[in-house]
Amino acid sequence: MSAVSGTSDGPGVPGVRGDAGATDNDGVQGFSQSPARAAVIGVHTGGGVGVKGDSPNGDGVQGFTTDDNHSGVVGSHTGVVGGPISTGTGVLSQSNTGVGVHATSNFGIGLIASGGHRAARFDGSVEVNSTLIGQQINGTEGSFSGNVFGKQFVPNGADLAEHFASEGNFEPGTVLVIGDNGLLTPCGAEYDRRATGVVSGADGLEPGIVMESKTESEHHVTLALAGQVYVKADPRYGAITPGDLLTTSSTQGYAMRVTDHGRAVGAVLGKALSSLDGEPGLLRMLVRPS
Fold first, then answer.
1. What is the band of 281 on the pLDDT scale with cuts at 50, 70, 90?
2. How many angstroms separate the CA atoms of 10 and 286, rounded?
3. 39, 112, 202, 228: which has the highest count of C-beta atoms within 10 A?
């Protein structure tokens, strides 16, 4: 049996109410010595809130404990284990203009999250003002204004690239050289020592890291600086086999096999990683400028 029981038969009329007025006392207190029972419990069978805390000037709900094995406040959602991922929430925190969740610790960890599917999910930007430490970080986009340290960084792409000002928007795989105006433009001569590299992203092989360079030009290209990239190559100057050095050709925007190593000094684009014979096409290349 309950020590206190209250019922309400009208809207807006509480079943149980505790009022301490302006005195330095609690409006409602609950005590229990049973480890299996709660000191205060609220149950709502109509889909509403079981327990609600409201305060216009203070904390709506507070929880305290001195036991290291227990929590001051616990929220749980009993979704079906082994079934589809539950959409219910153990603890829900919302704020219109302030902080939704504020977790601090003087000497320990401010916030710990664990999950069988994911430990945490962020649908907006994440701001980190101190050191970010982790064994694995996955995401579609991120920004760091400070140093990032790690033992190993594994990008999803294949090359290191950078944005450069160009005369136009050239398709991935195009071989570029420095034009007379300083802007990158497709090659059009053999063994051109103004060669800069290849536009990254051909044949779905996206860059793994892109360095953001500010360009004042109307157009820019993402140029592969290191790693693997697909390049447009013309084997009509000579069949290309793995290990061949590649340079600029007179076919606009295409590479060819190096046959004159003396002329190739300063004009090498990279080393072929696959074969190409017959008609021009895409060739996998290891970026190795000289």
1. very high
2. 78
3. 202
Query: Which residues form the domain of 177?
Result: 159-287
Q: Which amino acid is at 216?
A: E
In-domain check, residue 269 = yes
CA dihedral 276, 281, 285, 290 (to 10 degrees): 100
Per-residue pLDDT tens digits for 149-170: 666 666 677 888 999 999 999 9
- Residues 6 or more apart whose CB falls under 8 angstroms from that of 4 comprise 16
Please give the tally of structural domains in the chain: 1
CA–CA separation, 23 and 190 (whole Å)? 92
Tokens 């109410």 locate to 17
Q: Give 166-172's long-range contacts (Cβ < 8 A, gap of 24+).
A: 166/217, 166/219, 166/220, 166/221, 167/219, 168/219, 169/219, 169/221, 170/199, 170/221, 170/253, 171/199, 171/202, 172/199, 172/200, 172/201, 172/202, 172/203, 172/230
Answer whether residue 264 shows pLDDT above 80: yes
For residue 207, tell me if it sits in a domain.
yes
The percentage of residues in the chain with a pLDDT greater than 90, rounded to a whole number, is: 39
**What average pLDDT does the structure give for the chain?**
81
In a domain, 37, yes or no: no
CATH number of the CATH domain containing 213: 2.40.300.10
Cα dihedral sign, 82-88-91-97 = positive
Q: Is 283 contained in some domain?
A: yes
Amino acid 68: pLDDT: 74
232 three-state secondary structure: strand
Q: How far does CA 21 lie from the centroid of its chain?
A: 51
